[in-house]
Structures are given as structure tokens and as C-alpha cells.
Predict the structure.
Amino acid sequence: MPSVSQTSAGPSERKLTELAQAALAAVHDGKMIEAGAERVTDGIHTEPTLSEGRIYRLSLVCFGSGSADLTVTPKSRETPAQCDQSVVQQRITVNKPVRIDVMGIKGAHGVIAWQIDAL
């Protein structure tokens, strides 16, 4: 019976998620409000419940390849996030309801993890 050899396609989605969450834990500061992880192809779309007048820090990391665009509204400033394991942080001052969207750029794949901490 012929044997089937498995080629290495890189780390599994589960392993990438664990690595991404560990990277965020290393930069954690303050009280965690919300966190999660998604496939780059699915993106992140969340409207966290944040208290008006408070200051928060959004930390985001992507493990995989390619890049994604982070948009925090109402500011609507797009910030690139490379899928190179670098943590991107953005300070959020809440005056209006906040929406966070992260969309993978065509061809990007892997896992994006995020965390919002109250400062």
C-alpha cells in the first residue's frame, strides 16, 4: 500500500490563534474589555460597548501572510496591519459609539487577534 506524505502547509489556524493571543497578552495593559480572534479572510467587525469619556487601547496582531486594514470609526482613519506578527496599537477616546473593522487585503491569510483594554 503506498504511503501518503503530508506536506507542511505551515502552522494550523489553531496554532496561529494561540500565537496571536500570546503576543497580545505580552502587551496587555489595563483592564481587558473585549478580545477575540478571527480568520483574516473573515475580518473583524465589532461594536464594543465602551463608556463615553473613557480612554481605551486597541491592540491588534496578525499571524500569517499579507496585510489587513484597520478602521476605527467615528475617526475613520485606516491603519495598515501587516501579517508579520507585529502588534499594532491604537488609542481610542470614546465620545460616540465605536465600530472596529479589520479587512484582509486580497490574498492575505492567517489569523487576526484583537484586544481592547481600558486605561
Q: What stands out?
A: Residues 31-118 form a domain with the Jelly Rolls fold (CATH 2.60.120.1540).
